[in-house]
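Researcher: Good morning. I'm working through a list of sequences from a screen, and I'd like to move beyond sequence-only analysis. For each chain I'm collecting a predicted structure so we can compare shapes side by side. This is the next one on the list. No need for commentary yet; just the structure.
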Amino acid sequence: MSVDVGVIAAPDAAPAVPDAGLVPAADRLRLLAARHAADADTGRSLSREVTDAIREAGFARHFVAARFGGTEGSFEDLTRAVISVGEGCAASAWCASLAAYSARFASHLPEQGHQELWGAGPDTFVATGLMPAGRARPADGGWRVTGEWAYVSAVDFADWVMVCAAVAGGEGPPQLRFFTLPRGTYTVRETWDSVGMRATGSHTVVVDDVFVPAHLTLDRADMLTGRNGSSGVPAHSVPFQAVGGLTFIAPVVGAATGALAACTGSITGRRRNHTAELTVVRASGRIDAARHLVEESARVLDRRLFTPEHMARNERNAPFAAEILREAVTLLVGAAGTGGLGEGHALQRFWRDITSATSHVALQYDTAARKNYSAVLLGPEG
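Model: Good morning. Structure tokens for this chain:
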């Protein structure tokens, strides 16, 4: 199949909704997402009501420029909002977080790309395949792209996808670029079968010889370094290292908070004893510690503290928070006993979601933190 992005009309963006604040909107979304969470888990997808509410709450527009009707919001507000949604449904929070951060990635597109994505409104939903795969070859006015990208969360209801591919030609390692494609120019293969985070719909995107015009591509190096020649919005020029795993750990903090509430609600009567009380107290300390570290990472970004020490610490904070949140939910499952593992109990869903989410590559010490933060602590390698 040969497709030309330039001749396919992009889907109309949802009309802008007056911004009343992301955090209050997220609190309302949390209640809705919680009501649908069990069905989303068993059905392996978010309901249309929830995906529409994610968009209407303002997640997709959070980092979009004000000139397009976007919020130009802060990392701290986004982090608190994602945590709030995660208390009701981890998968909803995961998709909400990616809606915001994918728009931030797309801000590195040339100006014409901004117009194409947000000219009709700020609530365009972009899904992103961050890991390089596939290949691109130069073509007149752009590139032709072919490949497959696994684990593209929220792709089922995204308006566009961004995928990273190697560009052929030249000496040395191949250049990596992101390519932005509207719905209808790619196919989705349903491959997501994880036992947790089932409703994220993190399926595989398949692109078969699609032409992508130059204004819908960006150099991956610009995203990594924070260079942005198309936008002066502060959040659009943040080095990727500083962001680290914040995109993925905030939903987990929320899920762990939801797990604590689910567990404590089940400890009544004979189940309330010295051991159970001690266990939930220990778990709550881990959850609070993780929340403090994650919110601190967001404040580092808002204050633009892009020193090697701050950026490496942000990288370290995410896998450490993931580690202690896994410990916390394990403690909670033990405190709740067999009842907490019943299919109708929210605790077991949060347990599975946290286990699945914290397996993400961005939340591993070796891939996300070891090299840079060890250099801060020990100095560069000999």
